[in-house]
Amino acid sequence: MAEYFIDAKYLQCPGPITQLFKQMKEAQSGDVVVIEVTDMAFKRDVESWCKKTKNELISLEEVNGIIKAKIKKV
Predict the structure, then answer these.
(1) How far is CA 16 from CA 1, 4, 10, in A?
(2) Kind of pairing, strands 32-37 and 3-8?
């Protein structure tokens, strides 16, 4: 199992989701992707994206204006 990190701070929608999609496409089942974003709409977008793609949203938190999501590829 590998863990990948994406720094998508200061990208506007759909930039962060596009970055996440590209990394998840390369990841293997069980791999984890951590992404940090400053676009507040990302919270809603990543929840919907995970439901739609059946990937597991492990955690989603906001600290000092930075949203950090941890997603496991199923």
Answers:
(1) 23, 14, 9
(2) parallel
Answer whether 69's CB lies under 8 Å from 35's CB: yes
Contacts of 3 (CB under 8 A, 6+ apart): 31, 32, 33, 34
Residue 73 is classified by DSSP as -
Phi-psi region of 15 (alpha: psi -120 to 50; beta: other; left: phi over 0): alpha
Mean pLDDT by 10 residues, the chain (74 residues): 97 95 97 97 96 97 97 97
pLDDT value for 71: 98
